[in-house]
Amino acid sequence: MAADPQVLDRAWRLWASVVIVGILILGGLIGFVVLPMAWAPEPPAVAQSAQPAQGNAQPASRIVWSSTLLTKLGHSGAQTPPATVQVCAGCHGAQGISSSPTFPNLAGQSAAAIYKALQDYRDGTRSSPIMAPMAKMLTDDQVIEVAAYFSHLPRGDLDAQQAASANPLVVKLVESGDPQRALPPCAACHGVKAGGPLETPTLAGQHKEYLLTQLRLFAHGERRNDLFERMRSVAAVLTEQEMQQLADYYAHSPAET
Amino acid sequence: MPKVERLTLAHLWVAFAAFFLAAILGVWQMWVRSPIPAPLATPHNYFLSLTAHGTTMAYVVTTFFAMGFGYFVAQTALARPLPAPGLAWVGFWLAILGVIMAVVPIALGDASVLYTFYPPLTASVWYYLGLVLVVVGSWLWAGLMIAAMTAWKRENPGRPVPLAMYATVANAILWLWTTVGVAAELLFQVIPAAMGWTQTIDTGLSRTLFSWTLHAIVYFWLIPAYIAFYTLLPQAAGGRLYSDTMGRLTFIFFLLYSLPVGLHHLFMDPEHSASFKFLQMLLTAFVTLPTLLTVFTITASLEIAGRLRGGRGLFGWIAALPWERPMVLATGLALVMLGFGGFGGIINMSYGMNAMVHNTSWVTAHFHLILGGSVVIMYFAIAYEIWPKLTGRMPMSVRPIRLQLWTWFIGMMVTTLPWHWLGILGQPRRVSTFNYSDPMVIGWSHYVLISLAGAVILLFSAALLIWNLATLYRGAATADRQVGYALAVHPPQRVPAALNGFGLWNALVLVLMAAAYGYPIGQFFLHDSPQALIHHVDLER
Asked: Could you give the CA distance from residue A234 to residue B486 in angstroms, rounded to a whole number?
């Protein structure tokens, strides 16, 4: 009997199925019945206070990124400048290259970064006597139009020569950070193909004066619209000389650094 | 040289050349993580290199080796020509094209997402399309393996399929099942994201689909090593296989239990209930069965060989074994690494203990011991065993071959044992830079340095492998082109259909997968699940 393959096979089919289903039932019983009973949370020994703690904490920024918003930012018209841009152009330049080094260049800036800056000015999480009233005049759609428009402009001509001769210590800060001071590399967020947050601005080709002012504002806690205090914690441990060098580095770095 | 032999050699050369290049990257990565300043050490370069190393070792080396060895077994174990060898070459060139398409964006820094993808990080679409082509090429291989066995069974009704081929087809079927998860993730989630067709991705679903693939793929890598244990080693040691049935059961167990267990990679993830995690933990525990069966059967087979060679007493047979033969030596070394790696794995799959080692160097140590240790050393042994059959030339000397196997073993142990300890100390994996001035981190530095020394030994061994393979073309000609597959003590005359095919086991895999993954995947379609914004790593800022 045992030599007959047909008979042999019937037993294999039966027992293999019984064992597999048996294991599943055992796993199911323990996982879905016994363990949930054992893990059932005990009622709290002391009644919880009905009154939640009153805090004054406010988020550093109120932006909520959604795919709808990002689609609008990515696809809004780049060809014809929206009427609003004429106002911006007064300081930031019609081509996004600003007239004064204290005003940032906007040409080729990330649309998400411009959008966030304007929204932060609108709701007061970032303050500026010039920009706050300007931003408050804009509607949501106009903010998107402006951000999308400037993001599509080509970035300014940059001095690659000077970036190549940059101080190696600064390059190290940019590329590797300084673990001893818990400083992440700048390039981790601001670099090309970096993994930083969506709203991280592009720094390449920005005015040195503008970058330096922002670093100082972060360092002294006067600018506070960085989520999780990312830039405040970075700027607070940079020396004045490093801030100068970093601002200089980015002001002269080519677009691909 | 006949065409099919050229086919096997082409696959194996691609595998080993890629292996050598990825080994260089591995040493550099270890150097970057150490306290000694390394050249070009930036986080950007580290994650680029890590992606290249993982993609090459996990997808290129293993897939090409399994395909090449499979074609060899199909032709030699069945003693019939491969059906449709032209299709095999199509698969080879598709996979080559895929490798190029994947490697170029990695080198450009457009795909630093690591080989496990990690959505919502999204790389250049060429990276994913390249990997899809590698998988499509391997699907052709899987189809050819099944076709070869089916044709042989038709020509030999009632006879048991040779164990080497039965195991190869088990691996081909396992691979078809395995790739369903990652294929679904890539085709329906990641590639649409990379193309810019979607702005968000359900990372819970994508992680779950990848977990479907992520454990079974390890057994796809492992099975060629086990085929060598069962069918090449006993012959090389001068004995017989203790049990043919035990071999068949082992490969069936791999097919059954390597798939419905992937959630143990997600123990720390929030998207699954503890109940399903428990169920899959229990099923994972059964994966130890085929390995324990194998350790028993292989030890018994070696004991037969040792006693035939005159070994006496309780342990005398061990000393009597022909340890100078590469296959025997490699098996001994592989089993030691499998022991350490396997017990580490049992800790990983235990829900509670996993929490302590999750995302630490412990896990890296575990899979390097298994894949980089026991599996790869058997790939070397298989290559040394079958190369003379393929080229018709004997090795010039066995000494550099033994040196290569020993240095690989020593290097891997020296690299990974400190990693285990570092993991327990809390050293995270996937981190490029450590602050060695931190009082806690400074205590890790000497372990990291020992690992770095191990990595250097490994690189030496990888280079010696290439040297050894190259010299295999210069040895004396031999007429012995017959592969000696091991005979069992009781060669099977008739086996039940269940042990000669895969119909029953495929049905049971379906039952297991429906129970283990049905709801964990279905929940993403039944309930609203949170979406993550896609983050392109290949776009400029």
From this structure: 65
Chain B residues whose beta carbon lies within 8 Å of the beta carbon of residue A192: 109, 540-541
The ipTM estimated for the assembled molecules is 0.89
- Nearest C-alpha of chain A: how many angstroms from B146? 21
Contacts of B505 in chain A (CB under 8 A): 16
Assess B428–A contact: CB distance below 8 Å, yes or no. no
Which ranges of B368-435 would DSSP assign to H, the alpha helix?
376-391, 399-425
* Residues of B that are catalytic: 215, 219, 366-368, 429-430
Tokens 């930036």 appear where?
A: B42
What lies within 8 Å, CB to CB, of B182 at 6+ separation is: B135, B209, B210, B212, B213
pTM (2 d.p.): 0.91
pLDDT tens digits for chain A (257 residues)? 445 667 778 899 999 999 999 999 999 999 999 999 887 777 666 655 555 555 667 777 888 888 888 888 887 665 677 888 889 999 999 899 998 999 999 998 989 999 999 999 999 999 999 999 999 999 999 999 999 999 888 876 445 455 556 788 998 899 889 888 889 899 888 876 666 788 899 898 899 999 999 999 999 999 999 988 999 999 999 999 999 999 998 888 654 43
Degrees, nearest 5: CA angle B328-B333-B336? 130
What does DSSP assign to residue B262? G
Amino acid in position A138: L
Chain A and chain B share a number of CB contacts under 8 A equal to 122
CB contacts, 8 Å: B161 with chain A: none
From CA A101, how far away is CA A105, in angstroms rounded?
8
Q: Decide: B360 and B433 in contact? Cβ < 8 Å.
A: no
Beta carbons within 10 angstroms of residue B399's beta carbon: 10
B227 in Cβ contact with B483 (< 8 Å) = no
Asked if B274 and A31 come within 8 Å (Cβ–Cβ), the reply is yes
How many whole angstroms separate alpha carbon B434 and alpha carbon B43? 11
B508 Cβ contact list (under 8 Å, min separation 6): A16, A17, A20, B256
Q: CA nearest B540 in A: which residue?
A: A192
Q: Do A31 and B278 touch (CB under 8 A)?
A: yes
Instruction: Please check whether residue B267 touches A, CB under 8 A.
Output: no
Distance (Å, whole) CA B259 – CA B506: 11
Q: How far is residue B242's CA from residue B296's CA, in Å, rounded to a whole number?
A: 9
Residue B512 and residue A20: Cβ atoms within 8 Å? yes
Rounded Cα–Cα distance for residues A19 and A16 (Å) = 5
**3-class DSSP assignment, residue A55:** coil
